[in-house]
């Protein structure tokens, strides 16, 4: 099953929604809070087995990676593969991959039957 809901609220409401949704650990969900004047947006994704991922987003929806995150990444990476893997983590690639089939099922999209095999 899939549900989608547009919402509006004070900055920080997204994290309140995420806290409530995490009470059901079997849910896959994505909560996006658009930026407000002087406040970055946020994107939260939760997938069973991966847990919760969070990032700040800019006005155009891109994931924002801070200077401190990049410095830490550069200082702690032990080669190209380690660096690439950590960049993928910062960008939430595994969460995007897990949630993409559900995004394609939005309003106006052709029906795609999702099922579990095994």
TrEMBL record:
Highest taxon in the source lineage: Bacteria
InterPro entries membership: DUF3145
Name recorded for this polypeptide: DUF3145 family protein
Species for this entry: Saccharopolyspora erythraea (strain ATCC 11635 / DSM 40517 / JCM 4748 / NBRC 13426 / NCIMB 8594 / NRRL 2338)
């Amino acid at each position: 099953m899939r549900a989608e809901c547009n919402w509006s609220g004070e900055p920080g409401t997204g994290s309140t929604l995420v806290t409530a949704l995490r009470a059901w650990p079997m849910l896959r969900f994505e909560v996006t809070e658009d930026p407000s004047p002087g406040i970055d947006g946020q994107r939260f994704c939760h997938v069973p087995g991966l847990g919760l991922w969070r990032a700040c987003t800019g006005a155009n929806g891109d994931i924002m990676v801070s200077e401190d995150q990049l410095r830490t990444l550069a200082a702690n990476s032990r080669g190209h593969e380690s660096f690439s893997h950590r960049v993928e983590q910062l960008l939430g690639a595994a969460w995007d991959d897990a949630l993409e089939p559900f995004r394609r099922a939005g309003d106006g999209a052709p029906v795609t039957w999702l099922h579990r095999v095994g």
